[in-house]
Amino acid sequence: MRDIDGREYDAEPSDGFAAVPDAFQRLWTPHRMVYIRQNGDSGSDACPFCVAPALSDDEALIVARGTHAYVLLNLFPYNSGHLLVCPYRHVATYDEASDDEVHEIASLTQTAMRVLAETSRNDGVNIGMNQGRIAGAGIAEHLHQHIVPRWAQDSNFFPIIAGTKALPRLLGEVRDEIAAAWPAS
């Protein structure tokens, strides 16, 4: 496993620790430390979707690269396997995308759906683009499409009552699995 700074470490079993069991369930989401440490601010004016392609696939959580667009895991996912499809070119809205970009975004989305079905055995998928900050886009300046796998049993009280999303798998583990299952171009 990797820590938030990318250093390798072994997961430590907890059965040897001195502790008194309690009724609490723990949600381990170490990737969120990046967000917490930045207090919700990236600390940079650089567009993360323009920066990502210059990083290694592991660092950027990229699962596939095309000619005009690429696919990466959402750093702050709604569900495990929550993917984003982004054009390389910095455009804000779908109507600004070229025909080649639109075609590849669509093609990568179809492939992502197939790969997610194979790797996560999801029951459905939410696909969507929020165009503009007022429409809910977290990064309104760079077009990106969300692909969110859904399962019949994936709803619980956490998001509604506690404002918390339980993610059963680490991002790096999910990225490796999806990237390995992605068909060769």
Describe the model.
The active site is at residue 144. This is HIT domain-containing protein. Substrate binds at residues 74, 146. A motif (Histidine triad motif) lies at residues 142-146. 28% of the residues lie in helices and 14% in strands. It is of the alpha+beta class. It has one domain (30-181): HIT family, subunit A (2-Layer Sandwich). A hairpin with a 3-residue loop joins strand 1 and strand 2 (69-73). The mean pLDDT is 82.
Strand fraction equals: 5-15%
Rg estimate, integer Å: 18 Å
Inertia-based shape: globular
The count of domains is 1
Fraction of residues in helix: 25-40%
Largest sheet: 5 strands, antiparallel
CATH class: Alpha Beta
Structural class: alpha+beta
CATH homology-level superfamily: HIT-like
Protein name: HIT domain-containing protein
Pfam families: HIT
Active site: 144
Organism: Galbitalea soli
